[in-house]
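batch_manifest entry 22 of 60
target: DNA mismatch repair protein MutT
source organism: Marinithermofilum abyssi
requested by: lab member K.T.
priority: normal
notes from requester: please return tokens only, no post-processing; we will run our own comparison against the previous entry in this batch. if the run fails, retry once and flag.
--- input ---
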Amino acid sequence: MKEQLDIYNPNQQWIGTASREDVHRQGLWHRTFHAWLIQQEKNERWILFQLRHDQKDTHPGLLDISAAGHLLAGERPEHGVRELEEELGVSIPFDQFHFIGVIPETLHPDPEMTDREFRHVYIANSPFALEDFHLQADEVSGLFQVRLSEAIRLIQQEVSHIVGTGFRMVSGERQMETRRILRSDLVPHSDDYYLCVFKEADQLLDAR
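--- output ---
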């Protein structure tokens, strides 16, 4: 049976279910779970991006949310934490996540697809080092951490690029890498989305 998603009207009222394929082909509103992982080490604040696999059907090879996925029909946001285990091989209890909010956004990954999401966005402090992550080979090709302050400056167009440090999987082996990151290297979520997440992450670390 095809994966079924709950679908909604623009006011977030439930109107039924549809297959994932129909949801994207018809541009139906549905729910997703976004988990951003952050860290503070001494005076440095970091946020973690995953590198999408080159064979993904949408946004291949771009840097994206630490872990994210669709909420299936009947699921609640707390079920979304499975995405960390599936994509990154780590587990963080749902009660350790800070809820940012539900952010509606529409993307057009290709001419045949309209992705209308009600994004349930969360942040968590990560206790993990890069070597603790074990990636889902067909979904994620690498992980890169960037300074939170630099990520904000990139989205605000104060700099043309920033630097990320992490690793890429090459022939099943981790290859450590420092890479130059442009705005175009990120999945094209809106600037408002990125700034909301990054600034909320900064405030969360301020409150620690």
